[in-house]
Amino acid sequence: MDSTLQHGPLAHNPAMGLRAIRRCLKEPDRFLKQLRAILRVSAYGPVKIMIPMMTCITELDQTLELIEQAKQELKRNNQRFNAKPIIGAMIEVPSAALSAHTFAEKLDFLSIGTNDLIQYTLALDRIDDEVSHLYNPLNPSVLKLIDITLQAGTSKGISVSLCGEMASEPLYTRLLLGMGLRDFSVQANSLLEIKHIINNSRIENLAPKVRKLLSLSYPDEIEQGVRDLNKQFS
Asked: pTM, whole model, 2 decimals?
């Protein structure tokens, strides 16, 4: 009996395909139109440009070159714009976190997108019932990537924010504060509770305890440590 498994064509996984900055760079003419529009708006007030799904320095360089090209086109047409817009990037994949120090040298800010970062780090789809139980923000590898990014921002003097479900979960607030996060992007229904925790936390007390937690190897040990941390400082 032939034991070979028979498979049909593999379904396309949009999370791994042509999206975000990859699509922009593949269609530069359309991307330039978007950049020119953003820059024209910047003449009327503060504007930030955030590059999504950055994976490597080459993508960043190509994006910055296109932004400069858009500026030159606006200059030739005598159109107003802010010549120095604030430019940042999303840190959503492990390669971006590992390159955060390099990105930080060329950018004004970084934003950690935890939903995608956790999925890509742990190689799972959090809406897939077969593997969603493995989705864990307290996985040591996830925390290390967040920590690398926060340290990159600190070393280069740029801001690092964090968004996604992790930012809105009060269980993780003191942990993230102790890691060095100062800019939380929080869902409206969690805002008051997160704000209360932040206002009643002393960073100098949290930081050394959080450093010890980051040295642990097992997610359940880290989770218990986080819960103990919250009880101690609540």
From this structure: 0.91
